[in-house]
Structures are given as C-alpha cells and as structure tokens.
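# step 3/5: fold
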Amino acid sequence: MHEEETWQTALKFMAILVTTIALVFILKTLKGIFIPLVLAVFLTYLFAPVVELLVKLKIPRVLSLFILLAVLIVIGRYFVQILVNNTKDFIALLPTLENELTAKISALLRHYLNVETKGLVSILQSTRVSEMLSSLLNQSFSFFGKALLTLLILIFIYMSYSNYPYLIKKAFDKKRTREIFTALGKINEQITQYFIVKTLISCGTGVLTGIACGIMGVKFTILWAFLAFFLNYIPYLGSFLAVILPIVLSIFQFPASYMPLVVAVTLIVIQLFMGNFLDPEMMGNRFNLSPIVIIFSLFFWGYVWGVVGTFIAVPLMATVKIVIQNIKPVSFVAVLMSKKAYIPEDPKLFSFRSIRPRRKK
C-alpha cells in the first residue's frame, strides 16, 4: 500500500513536470499570438471605465472603443515622434559618452588600483552598446507592428464579452450562477483598479521625471520620462535603470559641477516617493507581490517572451494573484505570493490610504 502511494505521488509529480515543460514550450513557441492576446486583455481592463462611461451615454461599445483609441492615437502621435527623435539622438551621442566614460574609469583604475585597462576598453567598445540599443529600438518598431493584431483581439473582446453572462446563466443553476457572478465581479473590479492605479502611478513617475530633467537642463527629457513611465512596471530593477542613464549623462553634460549630484538626488527621491510611498498607499497590501515572486516572474517571462515578457511579467503575475485570491480552494497560494499577509475587513477594494487591519482600541 505504501509503495502504491509512493508510485502515485511520483506519477503526479512527473505529470506536473511534463505539463509545465509543455506549457512553457507552447508559450515560447507561440509568443507571437500570446503576447498580443495578453496585451489586449490588459488594455480591456485599462480602457473599461472610459468605454463603459461612453456606453452609458448611449454610444455603442465598439464605437466607444474606437473613439478612445482615436483620441489616444492623436495625442500619442506627436509624443512618439519626439520620443523616436530623442532615442536616435541619444544613440548617435552614445559613442562619445562611452569613450569619455571608458577613459575616466581607466584613469581611476590605473591611478588607485594600478590595474591594466586595455581589456576593459575592448569590453566597453561603443559599437557594442550602440548596436544593442539600436537593436532594441528596432524590436520596439517590430513590436508596434504587431499592434494591429492586439487591436483586433481587443475589438473582438469588447464585441463578445457582454454575451458571457447569458451563457453562464444557461450553463449553470441559479445558486452556482450567483457564485460565479460574485467571483467574476470581484476579479474584474480588482484587476481594473490594479491597472488603472498602476498606470496612474507610472504616468506620475514619468511626468515628474520629465519635469525634473527639463528644469535641470538634462538632455533627452522625453526619453527619460518615457523610460521612467515604462520601467515603473518593473519593481526594483526598473527604478534603477530609469535613473542611472540620465545621471550618467548629467556627469558628462555638466563636468566639474554639482549638478550631477542634484540630478541624482532628485531622480532617486522621485523614485522612492512614487515606488515606496505612493504605490503602497494607493495599491494596498493585497496587490503587493513578494520580491521572490517578482524576481522569479521577471526571469521566467523574460526567458519565455523576451524583452516584452520582462515588462508585462509583474502585471501578469498580479493578475494571476487577483484571480486565485478570489477562488477559495487555491486562495492560500495568493497569500504565499504576497509581500505582507492581509485580512480584508473593509468591503471596499482599495483606498488612497494604506489598507491595513484596524487596531483594537
């Protein structure tokens, strides 16, 4: 009997392992389909409040989506053009910056550590970094080229999701239907609020970074603002990457000056305020992921879907956490994924103050 249980456990483990490997293979092989699908779902939740508001004004749902997209395209067109020009100018300037940086590092190593720096110079060849950034820019254009597929999926989602309540009513009895609607209502509302709040915080980070760089005279202001916005979706590592490039640029832009220190302090304070204070205040503990989960998700989705996977890893894991915390049999997994344990007392899903258990008087 004991041997039989051991064999059953081993078979279950092997089945889980094989299923996981197969799933990773499918996700990696078919990333051209899955990435637009995931992005379309994210945009569905992000656009939902505006679209539903227009629907209440008797505007058809799909037409509401097109109106929203048209407004975003008109506003974003000029911003994207400025961003592309900023990025190209920065790539063109990069070889000069790298040569100066390499020379300074070599001088410091020779002077203080008596280290030979010929190997370092060959490692930090400007062409390598320039080619990497150029490749990243080309990947970005390729990614935007797939936006049509994302848009088509988004339209189909908005056209069809209103029929699902009727399908659920037909498929289940009244009690089960009520339970499903309650769970789906919580999941949809929490995911929508997560994406709205996270995007607002990212926009705030980008705007403050852009304003600060503009006031201090740091070049490529739009580029740094965009990076601060985009990288805010990657906790810890994203904040570091968002500040290190403008700080390094300021060192060469303002030689023999205190301005690089001012730039560094200002940008770091913005990141600390938005990431360590405002983000937890607005999001609440229930949306926070454990650092271990974040690091694992960054490596996993980065391996599966490359650069795009790195950026959507944390929102994707947050979505998974929201879903499973509303499914009782597996809700304990959401607790294990959390940064802090949270026991909800207030029926409200989030507030602009930290959601913490009330202290007994």
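# step 4/5: annotate
Confidence is low (pLDDT under 50) at residues 343-361.
# step 5/5: archive (pending)
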